[in-house]
Amino acid sequence: MSAPLRKIIHIDMDAFYASVEQRDFPEYRGKPLAVGGSPTGRGVVATASYEARKFGVRSAMSSRKAIQLCPDIIFVYPRFEVYKAVSNKIREIFSRYTDLIEPLSLDEAYLDVTEDKLNIGSAMEIAGQIKNAIRSELNLTASAGVSINKFVAKIASDINKPDGLTFIGPSKIESFMSSLPVEKFHGVGKVTADKMKGMGIFTGADLKKLSEEELVKRFGKTGYFYYQIVRGLDDRLVQTHRETKSLGAEDTFTYDLTTPEEMHKELDRIGEIVFNRLQKKQLQGRTVTLKVKFSDFTQITRNQSFNSAVTDIDAIIDTAKSLLDKVEMNEKPVRLLGISLSNFHEPEIPSRKPKYPGQLELFT
Amino acid sequence: MKFVVSSSVLLKQLSAINGVVSTNPIVPILENFLLTLDGNSLTVTASDLQTVMITEIEVESSEKGAIAIPAKLLLDTLRGLPEQPITLQVNGETFGTEIISDNGRYKLSGENPIDFPKTPAVNRGQSVEFSSSALGSAIANTLFATSTDDLRPAMTGVFVQMGTENATFVATDGHRLVRYRRTDIKSDVDTSMIIQRKALNLLKSCLPSEDLLVKAEFTSSNAFFSFGNIRMICRLIDERFPDYENAIPTNNQNTLTISRMEILSSLRRISIYSNRTTHQVRLKMSLNDLVISAEDLDYSNEANERLMCEYNGEDLEIGFNAKFLIEVLGNLSSKTITFELSAPNRAGLIIPVDQEENEDILMLVMPVMLNTYV
To answer: Which residues does the entry assign to the active site, renumbered to this chain (chain A) (predicted)?
Structure first.
């Protein structure tokens, strides 16, 4: 006998940062808006409003390109404090309906509503109520997908964006998956999608023809995952506490770097940020990863692992520098550098979570 | 070496110092008692490297020698024996030890006494004398409020300030605080130290029921106590104790005077209905009126009680963790107590109305921020 079916909701805020800006500043409403870095400099778009998306402006696009596509676009700097506060309110709304909340980012989360906390009766009804609460209390819209697992719920939320509410029931999952273009599959990026298309795999149906063995052979261990999801199988739990897998920092520079001296100087700075973040989260990683993005937007990563955690700030920076020195630059200028740590150890010091919420301290 | 001793006398003395012996010590030798014989005087030492306890027992012997014997094995044997003179015989070469009783012979292997850690020596410390009952109540009144959080080592002990007028014992875990002062413990020179909770716990449990004179000596790294035939040496916590004086609010316009038992039993009932993680209770005060309430929204639990009291001050609503209040009130003995309060976000002082002679007790609990539900 199989386990009872779960009820999973994926909620995705519509153009979250841009919508918050348009909500707080009426003069932006109805206009193409991009939240992100400066268009005169070298920033990128974090979120584009739907008005801007009509012109082809997308997230992660360089601000310069956005302004080429849409000359009237308004650029605003992100106010992360505000987004974080709004996100907390959204999570508060979620928490009325379920305790099983897995936030993916400020504007996205999975909810497991199998256990119906308020006795509402249907997951679609719960998703609808959450959308209404977000609209009436926060003046924002969200799209929701409802299904029996995380993967299908996430795809469902993307179907009728913005302000969508889509249900994909167990009986429809297989046919739905078959018609899905491969790039829509979670975990399939542009590179993998191109690789699949090169192999004549365009849709879920094509993917389904391949045996598990073959998928694993071609795509490594994610091949196993593809085999499962194309059949609508995804037993990943909604995890309330996500483990941090890697932690780092990166920076796009105001002008491209060309000399190793300049790059080393930036790595000193970035390394310090990474170190401070690690300390704050009390994490110690064994693997140092360096990310380099060149002026032509091609990007490489290099990493080095150690037998024990790299706890020293100088060790982190020196490793990043030596990784950088081994990179074949081909005289290409560098646009971005990043350092991250992964393969975390259990921290030696347990975290200081307050035992009694609201309890005031005598010595602060 | 060889000596004869009464089994019950030996058992009693070993039990007094056995608390120091940990079951899984850093160094295996510390699972042993160190027995040192000098004629008819037997010295037994137990240590966990932080605290050392020593007792002296009179035995029948004219020999000299030393041996380390597994504490548990020796104690278990003694506990099982009826009162009688027993003979302990040690082979100085092999450290093999034999206990001979009327019932039979028990052989166990001891260890080389040279491996046992050396006891720190007292050298020119500040010496003080006081009664064991004064020390006992100082420990009893403060120990419960120490922290068990190893990340805040200063608070895992009791802060002792010896002065020419009195001695002050302070314990806190950052949420509640006890300041216990005695005018019958004094020192010629001002000195202060933090004594570990484990050491004080051991001290408390082996202080005699009859009143004895306790001799104490303090150096910069250790505290020495001796009374009767027991000596204790404990390492001090080498940390800065938080500035507690400034944490005690002085300007508290609102005072609530109430029977300690009445408010204590009310809190015990109300706290059953409080939230299980915060243990939050509300105290709402107006002229001669106190309402204690709690609610747990998750379970729709709710309770409130109105108590007779004497309240002078402005109307005030303040939240507390019921566990802390209950603990503090439960550790007092005064019939009536006075709460001194200033604001919902400032510490509440609890002061016993009837204090013993030589004693000055002040307890403090930090409030919980009240969340106002819609």
So the answer is: 108
